[in-house]
């Protein structure tokens, strides 16, 4: 049985990103901390290692104030390659990763890639974004709060300083234990590795919306001409829907439309065009049913966009 790996990274950066053999490194990981939970979310282990920098050998002024580590501290750390291998071996087979926010898993994969180690998968990875889940469980579902704020709001013991990897992983694990099954179903996907074929695409229906992560495309025109991406189909009854608000974009990256289903009402579709690590494009599309009031708000948003794009 696979375990939950609640982990946190600390990283350093330079004044500019580093490049090597066509790979770019913006943040170099200097510490990995993790707590292992079994299927009942009971703690069964922990991992904590420092990493000696190989790229950014001076501590960035902002990083130094934040993470309570100096270059002298890191001199006794292992290489990223060795620590990463040890960490993944410690995780065990098919780990279910959890972190506070979406960045840690992405930066871990970025460092694996830069230092020539195998990536975690050949497609997007499902993981638990505890920061998002905290908002779903205790807030409005949209706000993203700092880990320290969540710990304070839940009145958890906070006698260990924040911004060290194991401490932050431990705090995140305690918060993760409080989530009910409804919240645990709201998984996220890391897209450092994007789908390369139709078979690898992600399509998942949550309790109140659908998410679709597409394969890669060469150009924005290819995306906008793709019928599957730009169609509006009810994700409950699977009927093709007539659009009440045609596709429009305020910025050329995000596209919106609203369609109507006789059974389920108004459905808002949103398409976000994103750049993959290799420079190609992919899409994250979400569909969600909205109220008539929200429909009117979308009409107003469309009118404002048209007015701005076509001033009289």
Automatic annotation (TrEMBL):
One term of GO molecular function: nucleic acid binding
Gene3D superfamilies assigned to the protein according to its UniProt record, in alphabetical order: Ribonuclease H-like superfamily/Ribonuclease H
Signal peptide: none
CDD domains xref list: ERI-1_3'hExo_like
Occurrences of domain Exonuclease (ranges): 3-185
Family annotation (InterPro entries): 3-5_Exoribonuclease, ERI-1_3'hExo-like, Ribonucl_H, RNaseH-like_sf, RNaseH_sf
Pfam families referenced in this protein's UniProt entry, alphabetically: RNase_T
Keyword Hydrolase carried by entry: yes
Keyword Phosphoprotein: no
Protein name: Exonuclease
Native source species: Butyrivibrio hungatei
Taxon lineage: Bacteria, Bacillati, Bacillota, Clostridia, Lachnospirales
């Amino acid at each position: 049985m696979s375990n939950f790996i609640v982990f946190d990274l600390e990283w350093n950066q330079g004044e500019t990103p580093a490049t090597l053999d066509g790979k770019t490194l913006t943040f170099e990981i200097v510490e990995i901390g993790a707590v292992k939970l079994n299927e009942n979310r009971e703690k069964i282990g922990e991992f904590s290692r420092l990493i000696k920098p190989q790229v950014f050998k001076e501590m960035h002024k902002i990083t130094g104030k934040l993470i309570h580590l100096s270059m002298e501290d890191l001199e006794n750390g292992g290489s990223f390659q060795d620590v990463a291998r040890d960490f993944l071996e410690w995780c065990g087979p098919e780990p279910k990763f959890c972190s506070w926010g979406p960045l840690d898993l992405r930066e871990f994969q970025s460092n694996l890639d830069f230092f020539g180690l195998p990536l975690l998968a050949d497609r997007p990875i499902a993981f638990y974004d505890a920061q998002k889940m905290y908002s779903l469980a205790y807030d409005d579902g949209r706000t993203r709060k700092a880990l320290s704020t969540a710990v304070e709001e839940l009145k958890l013991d906070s006698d260990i300083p924040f911004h060290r990897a194991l401490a932050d992983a431990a705090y995140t694990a305690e918060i993760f234990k409080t989530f009910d099954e409804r919240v645990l179903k709201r998984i996220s996907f890391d897209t450092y590795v994007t789908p390369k074929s139709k078979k690898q695409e992600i399509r998942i229906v949550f309790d109140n919306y659908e998410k679709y992560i597409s394969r890669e495309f060469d150009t924005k025109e290819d995306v906008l001409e793709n019928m599957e991406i730009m169609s509006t189909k009810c994700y409950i009854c699977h009927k093709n829907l007539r659009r009440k608000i045609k596709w429009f974009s305020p910025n050329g990256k995000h596209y919106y439309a609203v369609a109507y289903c006789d059974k389920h009402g108004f459905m808002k579709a949103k398409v976000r065009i994103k750049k993959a690590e290799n420079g190609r494009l992919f899409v994250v599309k979400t569909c969600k049913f909205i109220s008539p009031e929200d429909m009117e708000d979308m009409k107003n948003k469309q009118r404002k966009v048209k007015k701005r794009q076509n001033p009289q």
